[in-house]
Amino acid sequence: MITGSARVEDLKARRPRLAAFDAAPVTLPGVEIVQAMFEMPGSARECIVPPGLHPTIPAALVLQAWRCPESPWGPFSLVQARAQTRSGVRPRGFVTGAACDSAAAATALASGFGYPALPAEIRWQRSYDTVRLEVLRAGETILALEGADPDPLAPGDVQFSGTLNLADTPRGWRLVQVDPEFRPTRAERLHPKLSAFSAAAWGDPRLDPYFPVSASVTLADVTIPALRFVCRPDELAFTGTERV
Amino acid sequence: MKFGIFFELSVPRPFTRAIERQVYENALEQARLADELGFHWVWAVEHHFLEEYSHCSAPELVLTAVAMQTQRIRVGHGAVVCVPEMNHPIRVAERAATLDLLSGGRLELGTARSSTWTELGGFGVNPDDTKKTWDEFVRALPVLWRREPVRWQGRCFSMPERNVLPKCVQDPHPPLWVTVTSPGTELDAAERGIGCLGVSSASYQEQERRTREFHRRIQSCNPVSSVVNDQVATLNFLYCHEDRKRAAEIGMRFMGTFSVANSHLLWTREAFPTRAYQSLANLAPSASSQATNPSEGVALPEGLCIGDPKHCIDAIKRWESMGVTGVNFLLNGMEVVPQAAVLESMRLFAREVMPQFQERAAVAPARTAAAVAR
């Protein structure tokens, strides 16, 4: 079976440190979520995820953006790039990189939940039939994503999976399992178009989202619950999972 | 109660020509033995691009080889993917009739629509459309097989008047089935008068509900053909050994390996939000399990035929009691069970388990002994 082949050592750059696993649950009401999936070539499959995870067949990259009007840290936006994987047999996104436009939120999400959130400017633009998302860092556009021609769906039709965030924890380097709960109230499917993507800025220059699959925009209340599990990054979840 | 074997043809890495060939040869040997032992069916799936999990992309060729090497066992497409980007309906009708002819009237035709983005995306299929095209295929096939000449005006294909050749040996045509993974497909089967070919694990309770609904609905169906196939078959894993512990050890290893390979696929609902795929289907973990401990594997389905003969008899009796009329068995996964052990398991099952159900059938004929003529 296929498993990741990335050296954990090579994945440590720009990853956060968790001093403890005691972050309080966070409730984020009315979050606008744009999610887009792209296929990646086989050359970007095993090599970008650690040995504890299984990449999907085919390899896929999910871009997920949250626009949060309210939070303990004020309004903020968070954009994650995630390689779609399986931890054991469960669907999970391995977060390769993240951007956040609020220093307070970025710090809290990194130190509490292991999101590798780096500062960036995040621009949202919604017109009648298009959602545009642009992420800029140091003046460079590192992501320009567009979703057009919305098609209404039932709120539950969009699937969200939790993430595994590599972090330096009190137990050493671990994949921190974050399982946000999504309570969607509105959902639309969109046609995705990626006009800018700086792979290195999202964690690995080999990320290559070359084939658009789908996109959606969802309105949901989101809760990030307390952490329950971490996994050893170099051991399969069946044996490498630890309760915290 | 009828018993069948079910081929996914899963292949372990590294993919060498030798290992793929070995998997195919082992399957053919299993089919020959199944024929000898009195199994009723051998089914072969149609899957594309599903690395490790299934390298069975041309089941009609596998089944032709099986038909040429066997005498009695029925050969089943389990199932033809009914989307025109993968299979044009005229070609499905032609290939099926040819296989029916070559096998001497032993074909069963399962129909399906594919549940992975891995496959649908590879062929450029819009997941929103697959239920519609499947519906048109199952209505068109009996017409293409029987009417001479035939014309068709539909949504997914149209044709001017032609004679689709050859014609099936079975009159009026091979039994039709639909693979059932998502809850609710059993109702689609019942409403069209076609058999329910379970290809995913379901609990006793869920299978009982599905079977009850199927049998109830099919009484008032609007059949797509002049015959109704009111059979319900389920999928199971078989590893039968005199030593229950040994059976569990080996059988669970093959089932676990198979399930993990299954979970690596990119499921349609996960990749492409749509109303047309309401569940992740198959053995994939459900979305509601996200917050669970990742060290846990796929929840083990009830009623597996992994154990000693008595265990298998008890499990099958339970399936039978809820109206299931056939059980199909996966015999191996990724070749984790040595071929000799697979064959021995089949022999033990045939010797100790199958007679229990043949005797029962003799006392009380199966409710679905034959398709109900209309």
Secondary-structure blueprint:
The complex is a heterodimer of chains A (244) and B (374).
Chain A (H helix, E strand, L loop, with lengths): L25 E14 L14 E2 L4 E9 L7 E12 L2 E11 L2 H11 L3 E3 L1 E6 L3 E8 L2 E14 L8 E8 L2 E7 L2 E17 L13 E14 L4 E3 L5 H4 E3 L1
Parallel strand pairs in A: 5-6, 5-10
Antiparallel strand pairs in A: 1-3, 1-13, 2-4, 3-4, 4-5, 7-8, 8-9, 9-12, 10-11, 11-14, 12-13, 14-15
Chain B lengths: L1 E6 L9 H21 L3 E4 L14 H11 L4 E8 L7 H14 L4 E6 L4 H6 L7 H17 L3 E4 L4 E5 L13 E5 L4 H8 L2 E4 L5 H15 L8 E2 L3 E9 L3 H20 L4 H4 L33 E3 L1 H13 L4 E5 L8 H25 L8 E2 L1
Parallel strand pairs in B: 1-2, 1-12, 2-3, 3-4, 4-7, 7-8, 8-10, 10-11, 10-12
Antiparallel strand pairs in B: 5-6, 9-13
Outline of this structure?
Chain A is mainly beta and 244 residues long. Chain A has two helices and 15 strands.
Description:
The complex is a heterodimer of chains A (244) and B (374). In chain A, a hairpin with a 3-residue loop joins strand 7 (121-126) and strand 8 (130-137). With 244 residues, chain A is mainly beta. Chain A has a 15-stranded mixed sheet that branches. In chain A, 6% of the residues lie in helices and 54% in strands. Chain A contains 2 helices and 15 strands. The longest helix of chain A is centred in the middle third of the chain and has 11 residues, at 103-113. Chain A has helices at 103-113, 237-240, and strands at 26-39, 54-55, 60-68, 76-87, 90-100, 117-119, 121-126, 130-137, 140-153, 162-169, 172-178, 181-197, 211-224, 229-231, 241-243. Chain B is built from 11 helices and 13 strands. In chain B, the strands form 3 sheets. An 8-stranded parallel barrel of chain B has the order 1-2-3-4-7-8-10-12, surrounded by 7 helices. Chain B has a two-stranded antiparallel sheet with strand order 5-6. Chain B has a two-stranded antiparallel ribbon with strand order 9-13. Chain B has helices at residues 17-37, 59-69, 89-102, 117-122, 130-146, 185-192, 204-218, 244-263, 268-271, 309-321, 339-363, and strands spanning 2-7, 41-44, 74-81, 107-112, 150-153, 158-162, 176-180, 195-198, 227-228, 232-240, 305-307, 326-330, 372-373. Helices cover 41% and strands 17% of the residues of chain B. In chain B, helix 1 (17-37) runs parallel beside helix 11 (339-363), helix 2 (59-69) packs parallel to helix 3 and helix 3 crosses helix 5. Chain B is α/β, with parallel strands linked by helices. The chains are: A mainly beta (244), B alpha/beta (374). The interface between A and B is large, with 44 and 36 residues.
